[in-house]
Design brief:
- Strand 4, helix 3 and strand 5 form a beta-alpha-beta unit.
- Helices cover 28% and strands 33% of the residues.
- The protein folds into two domains: 189 residues, 3-Layer(aba) Sandwich (Rossmann fold), CATH 3.40.50.150; 172 residues, Vaccinia Virus protein VP39 (Rossmann fold, 3-Layer(aba) Sandwich), CATH 3.40.50.
- With 377 residues, it is α/β, with parallel strands linked by helices.
């Protein structure tokens, strides 16, 4: 199943090591190893004070830094975490490809790290979309997970340099800093622990009106639709008015607009929300609970291959046509009613390839929403 997502293999020859990484078009830096990643790894060689016994790669992507450091330091214990299920699976896959062991797991920043676990080195290619509040959370909370002499090494894009300076505190010592074209690299130590308990991901407060009802939502940074529902989502909400369902499944819930619409219009006994992005699952779940609905069943998955209900709502994101086609071929064997929403060109190519008979369609600008009702055998 993971093989469907492999785009190509990248050779990485760095510091005397020859490594290979299978990459996906759906993950960051799928054409070449990111320059910021290379700059951060190069900076580690210049800091002789670093202890490599226990290492955490925070936001690991497809595993370049974690795997490189494990190969360079075979006796080290290396952990890698990412909010993207697909990224974690690629890290596991690439670790096997390079004959090394990395403990890879999903998590939002430090959320799933074992209680009391300390690291001698935490490395991070900081995601620019997380902005200043995310920077605070990543930097400050590193202090809670480092050993006494541990170092937090991170690379940031130049656009975040001013934000980084704003969050510096007396408890933070800059061990080294380096400027590269487009990037800044810092090695940090902490005099004492700094906790940042605020939700660093909240972007906006949004009101969703469905007929006479008003729902209030918090939206997240780094997820689409943080200001308002997209045309695609509006089309799905319109289509839901005409349907019924006892058990509904939603793939890619985004901020939770469609999930709220499912409860408002369908009142299902059970809702499953499926996503590879833990942040989508977190905010959708929170927005449902805050509006008085039952907690949905959250499923971390990049590829759904099981039957969970009588209606499937599939909110297409930026998957390529071939991946969409393969997933549809699996889903049509499991679900008799499927709503698919996405860019008009993607939907129409899928219709043509699969010779889909549409029961109902809605077009909103450059988006198309279709209902497929498959015959029982």
């Amino acid at each position: 199943m993971l093989n469907d997502f492999i785009k190509k293999r990248i050779e990485f020859n760095f510091s005397g090591l020859k490594l290979g990484f299978d990459v996906s078009q759906s993950l960051f830096s799928s054409f070449q190893i990111d320059i910021g990643t290379q700059a951060l790894l190069n900076s580690l060689r210049k800091n002789t004070a670093i202890n490599y016994d226990t290492i955490l790669d925070l936001g690991c992507g497809y595993g370049v830094m974690a795997i490189f450091l494990k190969k360079q330091n075979p006796n080290s214990e290396v952990y890698a975490t990412d909010r993207d299920v697909l990224a974690v699976e690629f890290t596991k896959h690439n670790a096997k490809l390079n004959n090394c062991e990395v403990h890879a797991f999903t998590g939002l920043d430090y959320s799933n790290i074992e209680n009391g676990k300390k690291f001698d080195l935490i490395i991070c290619n900081f995601p620019a979309k997380a902005e200043i509040n995310g920077l605070k959370r990543f930097v400050y909370n590193a202090s809670e997970h480092l050993s006494e002499e541990g170092i937090f090494a991170l690379v940031i894009v130049k656009e975040l340099e001013d934000d980084f300076k704003k969050i510096l505190r007396d408890e933070i010592n800059i061990v080294s800093s380096e400027k590269k074209p487009g990037y800044f690299i810092y090695h940090l130590k902490f005099n004492k622990k700094i906790s940042y308990d605020e939700d660093a991901y909240i972007r906006n407060n949004v009101e969703l009106k469905l007929e006479r009802m008003k729902y209030f939502m918090k939206t997240a940074r780094g997820i689409s639709e943080f200001e308002s529902p997209s045309y695609s989502t509006i089309g799905v909400l319109e289509m839901l008015k005409t349907l019924s369902s006892k058990k509904t499944v939603l793939i890619n819930p985004s901020q939770g607009y469609i999930a709220l619409g499912i409860h408002h219009y369908l009142r299902p006994e059970k809702l499953h929300i499926v996503s590879r992005d833990l942040l989508e699952l977190k905010f959708t779940k929170s927005n449902l609970l805050e509006n008085g609905f039952e907690e949905p069943e959250s499923i971390e998955s990049y590829y759904l291959n099981k039957e969970l209900g009588d209606l499937l709502v599939w909110n297409l994101e930026d998957e390529d046509d071939e991946l969409i086609k393969k997933q549809f071929e699996t889903l049509k064997k499991l679900y008799l009613r499927i709503i698919i929403a996405g860019k008009k060109k993607n939907i129409e190519r899928l219709e043509k390839k699969e010779k889909i008979k549409i029961s109902k369609e809605i077009i909103k600008k450059n988006f198309k929403i279709i209902l497929i009702e498959l015959p029982t055998e």
